[in-house]
Amino acid sequence: MLCTGRPAPARVASLTVMDLNTVVEIRDARHPAPWRPGDAWLGGGTYLFSEPQPQLRRLIDLGRTGWTPVQQHPDGSLEIAATCTIAQLSEFAKGLAIAAAPLFEQCCRAFLASFKIWNMATVGGNLCTALPAGPMTSLTAALDGETLLIAQDGARRRVRVTDFVTGAGRQVLAAGELLRSVTVPARTLACRTAFRQASLSGLGRSGVLVIGASSPLDGALAITVTASTVRPVRIWFPLSPTAEALRAAIGSAVADDEWCDDIHGLPEWRRHMTFRCAEEIRRELA
Question: From edge to edge, which strands make up the β-sheet containing 233-237?
């Protein structure tokens, strides 16, 4: 079991590639065509090609869009393209002179994946798959990130990451809508962070992942819970709360049916470990 602020060791894993024998066409995303049933965006493909997708008929390949993987804007915010790979994000974060920089590597390591996954899996793909244990959801939700979504008619809308993922495997994308990027504001990049991850085994998928972010300006504290819940839950406190207030806030924010229940941990265990990890973070950042 892990509940530590240190990055978990990488697991030796292979990238399983499955033939998608129902796909009859692959289109370049730079040359738009009307969206139709059976279409899907193709980023890194680590999920699409990992299991049968009998509903698919056409893939719209984002690989040649040429989007800059990560860029820091003059206002200090960070824009992460949907096509940015985990390896690219990890490498970029190593050169960041910001307080929250260590959190990027910790969340990248939370994949517990091989170098094959690191070099193919994308930030956007991890968000759109919307798995509770998706560490890019954990990272961007904890830093109060905002997604940029583009519809087929070109209309744009922005949705906070905490509202983008609505449940296990569910998000707010409409048919044909594209996740273009995620922007993290400068104010959260300046926060001191604390990271706790818990798994049933040393190299297992995250059963609990809790992140704290403390503002250097006013002492405000944000606690973000993922992996143990079916959707990301971010709780903001104007000042560091007491242990009792923190526990009550988490209990109120997460409904009984929102604790995950699968092979990676029972709801009761996830709830207990969430409270434990959150309290460790509260003490660390206080």
Answer: 192-198, 208-214, 221-226, 233-237
User: Where does a domain end: 164, 187, 210?
Assistant: 187
Domain count, the chain: 3
Q: Answer yes or no: are the C-beta atoms of 71 and 78 closer than 8 Å.
A: yes
CB 212 within 8 A of CB 223: yes
Per-residue pLDDT tens over the stretch 68-82: 999 999 999 999 999
Written as six digits, the tokens of 110 are 């939370």
Domain end position, chosen among 140, 161, 187: 187
How buried is 160 (Cβ within 10 angstroms: 0-12 exposed, 13-18 middle, 19+ buried)? middle
In angstroms, rounded to a whole number, what is the distance separating the alpha carbons of residues 130 and 65? 23
pLDDT of 14 strictly over 50:
no
Q: Tokens 């049968």 — which residue?
A: 52
β-pairing verdict for 221-226 and 208-214 = antiparallel
Is residue 55 domain-resident? yes
Asked whether residue 51 falls in the same domain as residue 96, the answer is: no
Establish if 18 belongs to a structural domain.
no
Q: Which single residue is written with the structure tokens 């609990």?
A: 208
Instruction: Report the chain's terminal Cα–Cα distance, integer Å.
Output: 25
User: Does one domain contain both 142 and 101?
Assistant: yes
16 in any annotated domain: no
- Cβ(197)–Cβ(5) below 8 Å: no
